[in-house]
Amino acid sequence: xxxGWDLITGARPTSGERAGRxxxxxxxxxxxTLDLNHAEAEDSLAxxxxxxxxxxxxxxxxxxxxxxxxxxxxxxxxxxxxxRQLLQSKSYQELLGRSDLPVSRTVIHRCVGxxxxxxxxxxxxxWQQLTATHLRAVLGLPExxxxxxxxxxxxxxxxxxxxxxxxxxxxxxxxxxxxxxxHSRLRRALQNVQALSKLPQIPSDLARLSSAQRAALLxxxxxxxxxxxxxxxxxxxxxxxxxxxxxxxxxx
Length: 252
What we know:
By secondary structure, the protein is mainly alpha-helical. Among the domains are: 56-172, Arc Repressor Mutant, subunit A; 210-252. The chain has helices at 15-20, 23-55, 60-75, 82-88, 90-96, 105-121, 123-126, 132-137, 143-156, 160-172, 185-196, 202-207, 211-236, 239-250. Helix 2 (23-55) packs antiparallel against helix 3, helix 3 crosses helix 6 and helix 9 (143-156) packs antiparallel against helix 10. It starts with 14 loop residues before the first helix and ends with a helix.
């Protein structure tokens, strides 16, 4: 806002008022406005904390839904992207850092997640056999997995612990198309050895070596050759490899 406007009322001052106002007075009114804004924000958070305190009398899914709705309606706009908005909200971080917060920040995060799940999938009405603990178990999973697990848990009357085990199993299963597959240490080591043969500077490096250094390298490569033979033999002895070799020999 321009300094030519009254920062408290929003009205444009007259020419006489502008002429009579000193820079010190303008700075003082700016500071006053900032103090008022900070006080309003502090009062707003204090009111929110008081509302959360009253909600702690509730239990289970009703508590989670009420807390989630209260937090998202206070800090978020629209009906989606709540997690991103909360992460970017300075006021939300200030709320989580308050010493008078009646519940932990983890509980608030979970309540927001459960509320978002219920709004997105109509979970409370769709899976009436399930509790807040059931819904919490699938937070962070892809939507199709959430639906499949919650359908099964509701139909088969799983306990929350059964659902947590199934959700944990899915989290440990690599998702297709997500990043490069992890390789064993042995494979990575063999790939490093293979990469050595492709280095363009090997001939020039060898030319600078002394006789003693060349002898040491020969001894090292002999040892490496022996190790590679043993590794290959052990890999070939695996039952699945033996079956593959037999099939290969049977081909015309």
